[in-house]
């Protein structure tokens, strides 16, 4: 009888392990789907555009983003766990057995907040305030007022004003929309980073307006945060849309009745990224004069132009 009980206990244990594994598998697939969906929203591209760029069907992308994708990716994780490894060991570009990269990442993952800060200070010893000089950059969604407030701010402070997209057009010799059509987002993003670096190398003092999607490129956005004082011009989605339409640009709504929903989705997905800026100025329900006053006050309070 005890043998039967013991055997039943083993069966129950196996069933429990299988159930736990299935639950973890579903959670993993859901997490991957959420990250794909978030990354797509932050880049502001449709599922169709991602499908064309990646060669993966829209149907599969829809399943993946909803958390019901193919379990093969989860099986790879199960194999890694069975080998007592994290999945990065099987998919990382660097050989984890020949490089310290994965080991350092594992140690950093378990480090305290203070230890992480000290590591970053060692790896990036230059103090941000020295790198940023007196460069001020406005970030935010299209229609935030970056160009308008940027020019007015520069005029008030007697500083040069630049628009990053205009610099990109100068370098490429063509309008941004033609550049993207010819070289794709990759070509545009490459020139965006190069232009940002060139401006930082040639201007110690200026006001800069950048495109809203720059936050979707981690390395480029990190460079911007390290080398420019950043101000997020924040507004409600309805105000963003109204301002763009008031400028005579009807592209956001053309043939797309769901444009406002998409705008809200993009803003929601990027909020945490925009919030990394040193300062936030909400222009909601403010006149242009009031918004300018708020920006100038932030620049003074934060001592962005103090040598």
From TrEMBL:
- According to its UniProt record, this protein's enzyme class is transferase
Checking InterPro entries in the record gives: Cro/C1-type_HTH, Lambda_DNA-bd_dom_sf, P-loop_NTPase, Shikimate/glucono_kinase, Shikimate_kinase/TSH1
Q: Which BP terms in the Gene Ontology apply to this protein? A: amino acid biosynthetic process; aromatic amino acid family biosynthetic process; chorismate biosynthetic process
Give this protein's Gene Ontology molecular function annotations: ATP binding; DNA binding; magnesium ion binding; shikimate kinase activity
- Would the keyword Lipid metabolism turn up in this protein's UniProt record? no
Q: Which reaction does it catalyse?
A: shikimate + ATP = 3-phosphoshikimate + ADP + H(+)
From the Swiss-Prot or TrEMBL record, state where the protein is found.
Answer: Cytoplasm
Known cofactor(s): Mg(2+)
**Which Gene3D superfamilies does the annotation name?**
lambda repressor-like DNA-binding domains (1.10.260.40), P-loop containing nucleotide triphosphate hydrolases (3.40.50.300)
Q: How is the cofactor bound?
A: Binds 1 Mg(2+) ion per subunit.
Keywords assigned by UniProt, alphabetized: Amino-acid biosynthesis, Aromatic amino acid biosynthesis, ATP-binding, Cytoplasm, Kinase, Magnesium, Metal-binding, Nucleotide-binding, Transferase
Might you report a single GO cellular component term? cytosol
The pathway where this protein functions is: Metabolic intermediate biosynthesis; chorismate biosynthesis; chorismate from D-erythrose 4-phosphate and phosphoenolpyruvate: step 5/7
Keyword Transferase listed? The answer is yes
- Tell me the residue numbers annotated for binding substrate: 189, 212, 270
What sequence ranges are listed for the domain HTH cro/C1-type? 36-90
Q: Where does Mg(2+) bind?
A: 147
Q: What is its EC number?
A: 2.7.1.71
Q: What residues bind ATP, as annotated?
A: 143-148, 251
PANTHER family tied to this protein: SHIKIMATE KINASE, SHIKIMATE KINASE 1, CHLOROPLASTIC
Family note: Belongs to the shikimate kinase family.
Binding partners and assembly: Monomer.
In UniProt terms, what function does this protein have? Catalyzes the specific phosphorylation of the 3-hydroxyl group of shikimic acid using ATP as a cosubstrate.
What is the protein name given in its UniProt record? Shikimate kinase
Organism for this UniProt entry: Kaustia mangrovi
Gene that this polypeptide is encoded by? aroK
């Amino acid at each position: 009888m005890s043998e039967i009980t013991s055997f039943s206990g083993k069966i129950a244990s196996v069933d429990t392990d299988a159930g736990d594994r299935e639950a973890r598998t579903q959670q993993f697939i859901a997490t991957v789907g959420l990250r794909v969906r978030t990354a797509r929203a932050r880049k502001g591209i449709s599922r169709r555009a991602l499908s064309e760029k990646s060669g993966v069907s829209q149907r599969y992308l829809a399943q993946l983003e909803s958390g019901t994708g193919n379990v093969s990716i989860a099986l790879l994780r199960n194999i890694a766990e069975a080998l007592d490894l994290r999945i990065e060991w099987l998919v990382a570009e660097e050989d984890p057995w020949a490089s310290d990269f994965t080991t350092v990442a594992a140690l950093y993952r378990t480090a305290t907040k203070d230890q992480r800060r000290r590591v970053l200070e060692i790896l990036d010893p230059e103090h941000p305030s020295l790198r940023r000089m007196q460069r001020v950059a406005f970030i935010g969604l299209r229609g935030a007022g970056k160009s308008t407030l940027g020019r007015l701010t520069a005029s008030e402070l007697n500083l040069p004003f630049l628009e990053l997209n205009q610099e990109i057009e100068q370098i490429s010799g063509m309008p941004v929309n033609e550049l993207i059509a010819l070289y794709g987002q990759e070509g545009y993003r490459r020139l965006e980073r190069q232009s940002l670096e060139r401006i930082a190398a040639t201007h110690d003092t200026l006001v800069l307006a950048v495109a809203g999607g720059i936050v979707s490129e981690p390395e480029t956005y990190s460079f911007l945060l390290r080398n420019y004082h950043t101000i997020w011009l924040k507004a409600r989605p309805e105000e963003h849309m109204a301002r763009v339409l008031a400028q005579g640009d009807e592209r956001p709504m053309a043939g797309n009745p769901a444009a406002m929903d998409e705008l809200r989705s993009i803003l929601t997905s990027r909020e945490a990224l925009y919030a990394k800026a040193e300062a936030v100025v909400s222009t909601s329900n403010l006149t242009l004069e009031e918004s300018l006053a708020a920006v100038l006050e932030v620049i003074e309070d934060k001592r962005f132009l103090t040598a």
